[in-house]
Amino acid sequence: LFVVIPKGFLPSDDIGQIFAPTKAAQGISFESMVAHQKRLAEIVNQDPDVESFMSSAGNRGNNASGGNTGTLFMKLKPRGERKSTVDQIIQRLRPKLLEEPGILAFPQNPPPIRLGGQLTQAQYQFTMQASDTKDLYARGPEMEQKIRGVRGLADVVSDLQLANPTAYLTIDRDRAAALGISPEKIETALYTAYGSRQVSTIFSPNNEYQVIMELLPEFQRDPSALQALYVRNLKGDLVPLAAVTRFEQTVGPLAVNHAGQLPAVTVSFNLQPGISLGDAVTDIRRIARETLPATITTVFQGTAQAFQESQKGLGLLLLVAIFVIYGVLGILYENFLHPITILSALPFAGFGALLTLILFKTELSIYAFVGVILLVGLVKKNGIMMVDFAVEARRAGKSAPDAIYEACVVRFRPIMMTTMSALMGTLPIAFGLGAGAESRRPLGLAVVGGLLFSQMITLYVTPVFYVTMDRLHEWSGKRRRHGVTSAGAAAPVSPAAPAPAGG
User: Fold this and answer.
1) pTM of the model
2) pLDDT at 316
């Protein structure tokens, strides 16, 4: 069951928010991007479960994604005022947002914990790195197309954008030097025209306003307007920019992204409902082995990377917990077989927990695994109650079957009381009651399923284990005593050997 069950990392939680990055065509003007963003905002505003939203367009701060991106941040109505969960609202909004031509929106439920990674159009990231950008940029689109074909993935998008319209100005340095124009003056003129040069500040009683110098909007849309710019030389005369430069229009990368000081291409994706992150990671790694050469290294980032690392240590964590409990119980009973009897209930508890998760179509997430480890402490107390009583009865002279039978009869009531107390305390979590219950529900399902199944089975299995282990202990003790007796009988005693002094 552990191999078959879908595996996840952090279950989605309904915190009443939806984050939707947007992406338009490369080279789109800011005015067109704003118009597209407003139409998406109208679609969002019509949804009955959206209370308010914020929309932004264009490059933001240090974000290197470019001016063809934007964001939509939606705040939903309180959970009691809407019938749909955040994931259901996303599934309802996604086809409506895709109807807007010229722009793509990628709505996603923000994770409860953001674990590194880049802020991309989707929640999970798969990054390819190589020192040779030519090979990397050739393989990147191929890998993106194959990832699109993976079942259960949505919003597959790459940060590789190579068709961005680009204008190159090549300086004729000899002619520029003859006219008294330095490359620095050309850069200054271009930044004054198209940059965000602040030339003054207007102060008012309640605020201050930055004065930004720029060209009129009609001259910013057409690259041929570069030919109309003038540069002032050392004498103060105006020289046409076209006289000292050569203008060329082409396409190029919007940004050369890096990861770990190497050029990188990141493909981000979301998961459709009912699809586990473990299955998606396995499929993508298989495609990468079949598609990419050895010169391109791959790594998952953010939540996907944390999921991979967690899968390596969870099994070891469970084994260490069981080993520590075995050691403590062995010291307590001064016996290495009775702790095995107590721990015999753990496989049944694990089976019940995993089976319950599968029946309720729930992933084995971090929270569910915490529930499995919690079962280790809850379930073994049944065995402790029975074995502790049986050991004392055994020392009083009773046989093993009689001792464990009496232990089951006497301790049945406290066993049922403690188990029912644990069940009643965990059922609200398993039912998913309360705010943020979606993330805690896997823990409750694992504990309730494991307790119910192990409670029914261990009342019959633990006595059998105890009797079997007691007989094994007696058999091993007889073997040791027989070995000591045989060794003593076989040892020859020399009649001439002197008696030890003081003996």
Assistant:
1) 0.64
2) 82
